Amino acid sequence: MKEDRDLQFLAYCNSNDLKTLVDLMTYDKDGDIRLTEQLTNTDAYLRYYPDQLNCMWQEIANELQRFGGNTLANMWRRRGVCYREILKDVCRKMEVYFRGEESTEDLEKALLEKVCLEAIDKMPEEELREMAEQLGIGGKNPRKYAMVFALQLAVKKGGPVFIRIVAYVTSMISRMLLGRSLFMVGGNLLNKVLGVLGGPVGWAITLGWTAVDLASPAYRVTIPCVIQVACMRMNQNYGYNQGRIAV
Prior knowledge:
The model is unreliable at 180-201 and 241-247 (pLDDT under 50). This protein has twelve helices and no strands. It is globular. It has one domain (5-244). It is an all-alpha fold.
């Protein structure tokens, strides 16, 4: 593993969050083990999965670095790259503007803002309404445009509501990619979203991902994994736990 200060916080994350990250790297949408993953055969995985994953945070970080070294932009490297490099690569693919001088946390926040704004803009009205109601946004029986405006304003404003929106959207992505519920953050909403937007076409449309992204096995891993890592860091920095967010 490359020394990577941006991933050292994984040692302090709970196993539920780490399990989501590990599953995104090791399983495809059909529940099959990825041919390119190297984590499930390690002694650490056999010993610590699924309940003590913080004990193998270095192996998890190494696997993410390795996938980052296999993206189209870094194909020539044939080795792992540091998380910040992976993050910047994902930001470029997601068309998130940055100068390169930003902190890792600021880059992640910009990425999460973009992902959430895209999801809110494309989410069906029924799911928007339920999300808005549970978050206490938009008033009584708002029109769709009012809900979209209120949710997008909350994203741009930041703060606790933004963090909860991030948890919704991140869990939606993980559920659609892994085909099952991973976070207890509004299961009814997620079930409906899964029904409407399930599968690779659905989540690609939801987040504005391109056919090029879908064609790259590495980007199918690094994009959702970086979103998951960014959400985990945000929750930890602000004292939240994804599994306990009340929505």
